Amino acid sequence: MTRHVVSAVLLWALLTAVGEATIFLDWFPTVGSHEAEDFDRIFLILVAMGTPVFAFVIAVLAYAMLNFRSNDREETGATFLGVGTGPRVWVGLTAALAVFVMIFPGMTGLAALNKERSGNGWGEYDAELVVHAIGYQWFWEFEYPESGISVKGAGNELVLPVDTVIRFDVDAADVLHSYWIPAFRMKIDAVPGRTTFFTVKPTTEGNFNDDTAFRVQCAELCGLDHSGMQFPVRVVSQQEFKDWVDSKTVAAKGQ
Amino acid sequence: MHRFNSVFAGLALGLLGFYLGISVAALFRWMFGFEEVWERDLNVTIGYMFGLSGWLMGVGMWGRWGKEWFGLPTTPSQHDGWGRYFTFNTDHKVIGIQYGVTFLIVFFLAGALALLIRAELATNGLQFFDKAQYNSIMSLHGILMVAVAVGTVIGALGNYVVPLMIGAEDMAFPRLNALTYWMVPPAAVMLLTTPFVGGLEAGWTAYPPLSVVTQTGQTFFNLAIITVGLTSILGALNFLVTIVCMRAPGMTWGRLPVFVWSMFVTSWLALLYTQGFATAMLMVTLDRIGGMSFFDASNGGDPLLYEHVFWFYSHPAVYIMVIPGFGIALEVIAHFSRKPFYAYRYAVGAFMGILGLSGVVWAHHMFTSGMPNYLHGPFLIMTEAISVPTGLIFLCALGTIWMGRLWLTAPMLFAMAVIFNFACGGVTGIFLADVPTDIHLHDTYFVVAHFHYTIVGGEIFGLFAGIYYWFPKMTGRMYNERLAKLHFWWMFIGFNVTFMVMHWPGIQGMNRRIADYPEVYQPVNLAVSISAFLLGASFLVFIYNMINSWIRGEVAEANPWHARTLEWQTSSPPPLENFPVLPEVTGHPYDYGLPKPPHATFPQTGGAHAASPAGGGGGGGGGG
Description:
The structure holds 2 protein chains of 2 kinds. Chain A contains 4 helices and 12 strands; from the N terminus they run H-H-H-E-E-E-E-E-E-E-E-E-E-E-E-H. Chain A is an alpha+beta fold. Chain A has 2 domains: about 1-65 and about 90-115; about 125-255, Immunoglobulin-like (Sandwich). The radius of gyration of chain A is 26 Å and the shape is elongated. Helix content of chain B is about 65%, strand content about 0%. Chain B is mainly α. The chains are: A alpha+beta, B mainly alpha. Chains A and B meet through helix 2, helix 3, strand 1, strand 8 and strand 11 of A and helix 4, helix 11, helix 12, helix 13 and helix 14 of B.
């Protein structure tokens, strides 16, 4: 028995070590925002915590398959029943692990997102720039309320300034959509009849042509052209953003 | 005599009822002065209600049951020949095989749809289908597989072996049992007809407002789901009464085989929650045909209402799917480890814990739905709390395997794979229960990979474990072990490669339910598609093995596995009322190697007790 336990634990340790090495892999798309950094960190914490659990199951199954197989139809195994401390320790350990995961990274991570307790979205409501996003079957329209700019249709881009706290107010005109920018790791559904939001702080300049993570992607099945319901995003420096706003407003006045 | 007891009579009365219903609806519309008497969704709904009644009456409900209401003699069930599988038969063993064959056909159809999806997604751009066809195929794959996952284990294996395992002659309500089966074919027909009436585009989740404004296919879908839901509820009721009231003398709750416990808990879940799905579908139907505007925000409705009602069923539903998988895995592991079940009471506690918690976690499907923020914390906590009872399943499985003498037969391999796959599905579940990571991962291929790991990996592998394990009992013949092992390794590797790789595009930002994707995800999707076809091909081995073994297989003994439980203590297949004499339960089902009495004995005429035909190491052989 002791020999089996020691060997299985060694196998478990080996599998865990191999599994933990995967946290050095390049898992993620481009990190485009402060919130994406949080996501990537929490994701890797969960990988690190989940690996020993999965490795334990594999180790016991694999060890048992290799060492406890029998072709003798009359043979029977050990006769312990699992009524003593074994299961109690297991319950205690798994409950402790579950509570740990609930608190960290669960509730601690959530605290950073649930700044508006009764709101319908992620992060602070206060922002330096507000963009109003409206989902239609099957396109996005964007309004910048401060400057009165409206963006939609082919050839256009959702232009955003870097290092600025931006809140997206999200609405749907017809059916459910979901407003998702993979580079920002942020998503909120667009629901007819209620305005949802999320707030992000972009940290990296980039654009859709170079990196598809910089796109608005509808992530809630919305009918025929759901897969085509994308819109390119361009994150630019704050100065470039000002110039872009000026060019747009001048163009609008000139009409 | 058989006029009203056949599939043909069912079809005839069903069609008659359908057209009658349509006409009645049109007549009423004409009487109330509507210009347009033909409103497709409304007329079809009324027609379906009439048609379903006609079908059920024609197929045998009238002849075997309804006549009694009018004091007429009913016709008895047919008990011989393959023809009995096409009748309104009240024998639970016939019904089990009816369910099994029907759902396996649906499973392979839906699996073929999955391969169409993977063919389309093998490379970016549109190859084989247009977007409407893709959405239809994807939705149909989803809902057919959900029906298979909900119905197959409980309908086929549960029906066949639960009465045997508890020492009963049949289910508590045999005619109700037959009725639940015969509601399945019309629902399947309705779902398979959807491509011809505009198709589906709202997925299996059918979120409004899309499901309200879409084509008539959605109404067919709704009616089918309400019918299948009724099957599920009535079947659950039958199982509960059977397990509570029909256990053989001495079959205490503490001696109940763990598979029966899993069916008991599954039935509670189905009975308590299925109405949620049916209600959601009814509300969508009423929005569509009655202008109720439950979900129309411009008329005071709210789309989020649907999500709550829907997931109130559909989260417990994932446990309706996976608890039977756990039940089979633990049952099979217990017998093939040749040692006592480890921590039996904790396994029952695990099922009870899941039963209790599964009803209070539904909104973790809605973390990005725009529901109020204060709801996220409680649902995060309760969702992660469910890992504790689920963890006990692993304790019992691994504890039973440890230091056993394992027979690595095909059912045992499938059962161990359940534990392996669900460990992976459970770990990835934490990423989705955890709100900060779920925000990005929600509605991506990470979710698709996760739920295929839990449902296919957890339940469908369990289903195959159960099919191989009970095949000798059900057919009286042995399957080909070599082919079964080939099927296992082929399916196991194909499955794990397909779905392990599928997590990756999800993290990288590929959302689900799309006909086309940005070019950057092309290589990984090609890899997934190739291994998906590999996975699909493994079932050809299964189909060949099943058909060939059923016809030509070696004749099986009563107890080829030397198992202690009751279903193995009668002939293969069992006689009409299961046991020549009713058994008396005298011990625990899993006491392999212990000097304990056998699980059951059969009282002989004259009062003497004989040991069961094959106690399988129970009679005091090994000792501890």
